[in-house]
Amino acid sequence: MKRKMIVAVAMAAAIGAGATTAIAHGGASGVVKERMDSMEALGDAMKELTAMMRGQQDYGAERVRSLAATIESHGGEALTRLFPKDSLDHPSEALPAIWSDWDRFSALSDQLSAYARALAAAADNPRPSGGAQGGMMGRGQGQGQGMMQGQGVMGGGMMGGGMMGGGQGPTAEMLAQMPPDGVFFHLADTCSACHQSFRKKQN
Fold it and tell me: Has residue 203 been placed in a domain?
């Protein structure tokens, strides 16, 4: 797959993460409404980060840190606690696969928070001259192997496998040394993997 196509897929996934913003919460109550509100906050943060990484909005390290903190606060245990077993009341978009593959869902939730922390740490790192395309491929600062030798996107992450579901993805410590564009790529990959496996497909 050509680099431009990979970047386009990453960006589409990040924008897709904010799809819940456009979906009414009509009829939602209790924990279902609480998690839909959480997904909306995550989606809004991802959409703004996407605009920055695409150059559609001025890049600001402090704003990146703020948005990353929002994402971190909605991941990990803060996310998994919103999915008590079989909480599928309308208009929930959750799939039963969440509970049949809880370990992977929990791992992706933890990864979301960890990668958000990495993005905050990397916010002031130099961005590659190639812009989003260079950074999103994990290049710059000696990180030419940022995609971990076929793991991540090429190993099935953006295409639905997810780093936690296939190979060993980069650690948050490794990502924190990369350009912010590259860290965001992995963050979007995590969102995409979770949506592919655990959320009802949108018509």
Answer: no
